Amino acid sequence: MARRSIIAANWKMNGDLTLVNTMVNALSEVDFQNNVNVVICPSSPYLSALVAKTKEQKLGPTFAVGAQNVSEHENGAYTGEISTKMLQELSVEFVIIGHSERRSYFKESSTQIAHKVSVALNAGLTPILCIGESELERATEQTETVLASQLQPVIDEVGIEKFVDVVIAYEPVWAIGTGKTASSEMAQETHQFIRQFIAQADENVADKVPLLYGGSVNASNCEELFAQADIDGGLIGGASLKAEQFKVICLAAKGK
Ligand code: PGA
After folding, report:
1. Which of 108, 133, 157, 171 is catalytic?
2. Which one of 72, 99, 137, 157 is the catalytic residue?
3. What local confidence, expressed as pLDDT, does residue 148 receive?
4. Is residue 245 in contact with ligand 1, taking CB distance under 6 Å?
5. Mean pLDDT in the chain?
6. What does the alpha-carbon distance between residue 203 and residue 73 come to, in Å, rounded to a whole number?
7. Domains of the chain, with CATH numbers?
8. Residue 32: its pLDDT value, please?
9. 241: Cβ below 6 Å to ligand 1?
10. Most distant pair of Cα atoms in the chain: their distance
11. Is the C-beta atom of 230 inside 6 A of ligand 1?
């Protein structure tokens, strides 16, 4: 079974209405292959404008809008939070969950992240589950243990059958926003570990789950990374804020 390729833009707390317009205009000039999905995840105040702009430019089914976070609660007294229902109402289709910045600055635990993945799936949203090790964990050879400890609570909570609808972004924390990218060999080796880990629960699911690489991906290194057997695309931060560079990255994506 062929796996689709996904290029997701994580704008973090950057961007504005001008970028929404520039990005959609730039992407509307690109003829994407059918098995490539492009997802833009702006800050929540820009979700509606992005959805409206993509409709106006008729970007088509290969393009989708994603949020950067969602609450694990359905509704209620949670000031500042956003629910799955609100995202659905805005025609948002994806949501980034468990980004390392949320794990470290906002103290999100793997259990809370597993709840978020579960509510997102139940609402028909596609979670982009972020996992990754720190520099110290890589240096002390704990990478596989850390990744397993981030994946297992999610598999346990949602069940392996539903896990097939999850997208995973492997983002080594030391490569995020630092300009230090994992070498394509190192990234492939880790992606292969992730796929084998999922295969222990279900080989068929492991074959289908898209695994994205994230961490200082840019127009120069994307092609080599995306050529790796287990890398199905990327989660792009800094380089997704520049329309021309992001377009090059999207065009380097190929389904497997
Ligand atoms: P970066 O960010 O591409 O700027 O390293 C990636 C991410 O944090 O998702």
Report:
1. 171
2. 99
3. 98
4. no
5. 95
6. 32
7. 5-252 (3.20.20.70)
8. 75
9. no
10. 50
11. no
Residue 151, token pair as written in the block: 């994946």
Q: At what angle do helices 143-158 and 110-122 cross, to 10 degrees?
A: 40
Centroid of ligand 1 to alpha carbon of 73 (angstroms): 27
Q: Which residue, among 185, 164, 171, has the nearest Cα to 217 in the 3D structure?
A: 171
Side-chain half-sphere exposure of 165, counting CA atoms within 13 A: 18
User: What does the angle CA 89 – CA 28 – CA 32 come to, to the nearest 5 degrees?
Assistant: 95
H/E element holding 235?
strand 233-236
If you measure from the C-alpha of residue 243 to the centroid of ligand 1, how many angstroms do you get, rounded to a whole number?
15
Q: Residue 15: left if φ>0, alpha if ψ -120 to 50, beta else—which one?
A: left
40 CA from centroid of ligand 1 (Å): 13
pLDDT at 31 (0 to 100): 81
**Given the DSSP bridges, would you call strands 36-41 and 63-67 parallel, antiparallel or unpaired?**
parallel
Q: Is 81 a catalytic residue?
A: no
Q: Which of 135, 215, 127, 141 is nearest to 171 (CA)?
A: 215
Give the number of C-alpha atoms closer than 13 A to the C-alpha of residue 12, restricted to the C-beta side.
14
Say what the pLDDT of residue 240 is.
98
Which pLDDT value is given to residue 61?
A: 83
State yes or no: is 244 an active-site residue: no
Report residue 63 as tokens.
Answer: 């393009």
Predicted local confidence at residue 1, as pLDDT:
53
Give the residue ranges of the chain where pLDDT is below 50.
Answer: none
